[in-house]
Amino acid sequence: xxxxxxRGTTSEQDTRFSxxxxxxxxxxxxxxxxxxxxxxxxxxxxxxxxxIREQVISVIGFEDEVIVGxxxxxxxxxxxxxxxxxxxxxxxxxxxxxxxxxxLWQLLLxxxxxxxxxxxxxxxxxxxxxxxxxxxxxxxxxxxKRQEMIQQAQQAQQQLINAQNEMKYESNNNNNxxxxxxxxxxxxxxxxxxxxxxxxxxxxxxWDTDEPIKAKDYNNNxxxxxxxxxxxNNxxxx
Length: 238
Prior knowledge:
74% helix; disordered N terminus
């Protein structure tokens, strides 16, 4: 140990591990696409890194920087070996290691043929955009239906108000017409014979009131005539 660092050999440098790895490669059965080489210069690593992190979380239930770092380290080599990667990750991902490495290698091969992005990612993105568009159209149609329902309800309410106003207007007209034809304002309608009796009583009342005044006027006239006769007689005697 020197300078505070441990010195040792890597798994590639350790012949014991190398021999063990070779034996495991011979004993294990790998998928056919592992035989195809991947040129990482033709792959957009940032896209693949996102998938690696998501899959590690899906497999072990949490994000593990050690496992993610190991996978990215394998992919940074000039000639990554998927068989070696599977052997190295078996102690971390256990029975799900083979599936993880197999899917990863298929994505890398697809990315080389599609401008660095796996075809599966492109199709998934298209489906997401399509689903988003469908959802937006659904929301738009739902909003439009609600607006139409509100508009119809407002129109129905306005029609009801108009009908009520027309009924009130007609009722007022009918009441006014009935009053105008049956009994004019300010006039009193009498039954047959009632008017004649009221006229007779009115004349009798007037006569009772005016007669004493007329009698008084006659008496004043008689007195005036008598005074005039006396004056004329006196003048003759003189």
